[in-house]
Design a protein that fits this description.
Number of helices of chain A: 10
Structural class of chain A: alpha/beta
Strand content of chain B: under 5%
Largest sheet of chain A: 6 strands, mixed
Number of strands of chain B: 0
Number of domains of chain B: 1
Helix content of chain B: over 70%
Number of helices of chain B: 11
Organism (chain B): Aliibacillus thermotolerans
Main location (chain B): membrane
Largest interface: A-B, 33 and 28 residues
Shape of chain B: globular
CATH topology of chain B: ABC transporter involved in vitamin B12 uptake, BtuC
Order of helices and strands of chain A: HEEEHEEEHHHHEHEHEEHH
CATH superfamily of chain B: ABC transporter involved in vitamin B12 uptake, BtuC
CATH class of chain A: Alpha Beta
Strand content of chain A: 25-35%
InterPro entries (chain B): ABC_BtuC-like (IPR037294), ABC_TroCD (IPR001626)
Distance between the termini of chain B: 60 Å
Structural class of chain B: mainly alpha
CATH class of chain B: Mainly Alpha
Pfam families (chain B): ABC-3 (PF00950)
Radius of gyration of chain B: 19 Å
CATH architecture of chain B: Orthogonal Bundle
Oligomer: heterodimer
Radius of gyration of chain A: 18 Å
Shape of chain A: globular
Number of strands of chain A: 10
CATH superfamily of chain A: P-loop containing nucleotide triphosphate hydrolases
Largest sheet of chain B: none
Helix content of chain A: 25-40%
Membrane topology (chain B): Multi-pass membrane protein
Order of helices and strands of chain B: HHHHHHHHHHH
């Protein structure tokens, strides 16, 4: 344990290659995410962003080559999943026909580490209220999740990830389908989590313009890693202009689908 | 023993009451998992198992064995097979269910015609016959109900999280493979226990109709479970009552009551709305 405490690396990805049906998706990926950072992972559609996240979370495990470490432990041996919170692209994984209240949804964030026999106790209910309060959704506690707007649902899912008090939070395209006003509030919430609660953040997005104003580090991905450095360095790099052009084109095309 | 001291009509009612709780309970979990159809094809595989059990009992008269146990065994194997087929032939998911469904019922008809039991007994399993619930059948129903409740008690949290968001469940460290296996067991248990009460052809109704009606009023998952069980019990009890007084087949009557309840709950909002408009 002592050894792990000294390591201030949350994620270490080393020489990772990944193929899908013989097509290379990721090639020679290597980077480190330091404790306390707020990293933006950007890249056009089909650049392998979600694949990389799924590899880090152990949701995909047919890695061709390379190693991944979480909190200094090899992924294969990593067991402390409550240290990691995950907010996925809402539309893909959430079962919208499920008649659950906001409270019930957030409670699920605790299920993984509760084990057999145990039911929600007072302390756990307070934790749920606290997580809902952090994202500003406490007044909606008893509402069915299906009745909320996209932005509100996204906040509930963040509360679900926060309730187990993670040290590292991964968010995959969380602002897709969320209106512009909510996006700004959303980034301010992330900043609060990063600075006040000292949660390390990894944000996957194709919305490069807004993102660079908030994050500390940028990872630029398109099959291979094109850039890894601070947000300031990224702004002044050639890549920034190239990517901005590319990515915003993609964003624009997508706008039609999501709004 | 409790099940031996009851008259045949009491045994039937107790069996129906137990099934009225368990079937909608499991049905609610299946519904949110969007796999209600699976139970439909599995019920036919269970029928194959029961037919095999009936035949086996005739061949080996010395070993007293309730065909329902063999039915459960077949249901479990079929359940695992469907899960496997769904994963292997990802693009042919819709094919797996009807394939197993028709194979199951065809094989069952063949087995039944080989055995000398005749079609009366087969008919009982097809449409249910609560007056023919034997003490051994009731014991089977009580054991399976107990196992279902145990699984629910221990794994409720895990089953819910897997149904709601499978990816999040994995990231939380919940074994989705293990939970999918538990789901298979639950489905096999509930189908084999419902067989004598509503029968194979009607068990799907008792699993899905009370849940569908509850969805109209439930505001949380807890409420969905409670409403499903209440409506399931109302359907079962009123079905038994009417079938007794008007000598109608109970399995069919239970299903008809479930359909009426569902219609009532579907129409309820618009009826109330009209009333409000009228008064204002």
């Amino acid at each position: 344990m002592k050894e792990n405490d000294c390591i201030d690396e949350v994620v270490r990805v080393k020489d990772v290659f990944f193929q899908y049906h013989g097509q290379p998706v990721l090639e020679n990926i290597a980077f480190v995410i330091k404790k306390g950072s707020f990293t933006g992972l950007v890249g056009p559609n089909g650049s392998g962003k979600s694949t990389l996240i799924k590899l880090i979370l152990g949701l995909l495990n047919r890695r061709e080559r390379g190693e991944i470490y979480l909190f200094g432990t090899p992924l294969e041996k990593f067991k402390q999943w409550s240290k990691i919170g995950y907010v996925s692209q809402k539309a893909n994984s959430f079962n919208s026909g499920f008649p659950a209240t906001v409270f019930e949804v957030v409670a699920m964030g605790l299920y993984g580490k509760m084990g057999l026999f145990r039911f929600l106790r007072k302390g756990e209910k307070e934790k749920i209220d606290e997580a809902l309060n952090t994202v500003g959704m406490l007044p909606f506690k008893k509402r069915p999740i299906g009745e909320l707007s996209g932005g509100q649902q996204q906040r509930v899912f963040i509360a679900r990830a926060l309730v187990s008090e993670p040290e590292f939070l991964i968010l995959d395209e969380p602002t897709v389908g969320v209106d512009a006003a909510s996006v700004k509030k959303f980034y301010q919430l992330l900043l609060k989590l990063n600075q006040e609660k000292n949660i390390t953040l990894l944000l996957v997005t194709h919305d490069i313009g807004v993102m660079t104003r908030y994050v500390t580090d940028v990872l630029c991905l398109n099959k291979t890693l094109h850039f890894h450095g601070t947000a300031q360095d990224f702004e002044t790099s050639d890549l920034s202009s190239v990517y901005k052009h590319d990515v915003q084109l993609v964003t624009h095309e997508h706008g039609g689908f999501h709004t | 023993m409790f099940e031996l001291s009851l008259s045949f009509i009491e045994r039937g009612i107790v069996a129906a009451m137990i099934v009225g709780v368990i079937a909608p309970l499991v049905g609610a979990m299946l519904f949110v998992r969007r796999s209600s159809v699976v139970s439909e094809s599995l019920s036919h595989v269970t029928l194959t198992g029961v037919s095999a059990g009936v035949l086996l009992a005739q061949v080996m008269e010395t070993i007293p064995m309730n065909p329902l146990y063999i039915g459960f065994g077949f249901a479990l194997v079929g359940s695992l097979l469907i899960e496997k087929l769904r994963q292997t032939f990802h693009h042919f998911q819709d094919l797996a269910a009807p394939m197993i469904l028709s194979a199951g019922i065809g094989l069952s008809a063949v087995l039944m015609s080989i055995s000398t039991a005749g079609y009366n007994e087969w008919y009982d399993y097809l449409f249910g016959s609560i007056i023919s619930v034997s003490p051994s059948d009731l014991r089977f129903i009580m054991i399976t109900a107990f196992i279902v409740l145990l699984i629910f008690y221990f794994f409720q949290k895990e089953l819910i999280i897997v149904s709601f968001d499978e990816e999040f469940a994995k990231v939380s460290g919940v074994s989705t493979k293990g939970m999918n296996f538990l789901f298979s067991i639950l489905v096999a248990l509930v189908i084999s226990m419902s067989m004598k009460v509503v029968g194979i052809l009607l068990v799907g109704a008792l699993i899905s109709l009370p849940v569908a009606a509850s969805l109209k009023v439930a505001r949380s998952f807890r409420q969905l479970l409670v409403w499903s069980v209440i409506l399931g019990e109302v359907a079962v009890m009123s079905g038994v009552y009417f079938s007794y007084h008007y000598s109608i087949a109970p399995g069919g009557m239970i299903v008809v009551m479930s359909v009426l309840l569902l219609l009532l709950f579907l129409l309820l909002p618009s009826l109330m709305h009209r009333k409000q408009e009228g008064s204002s």
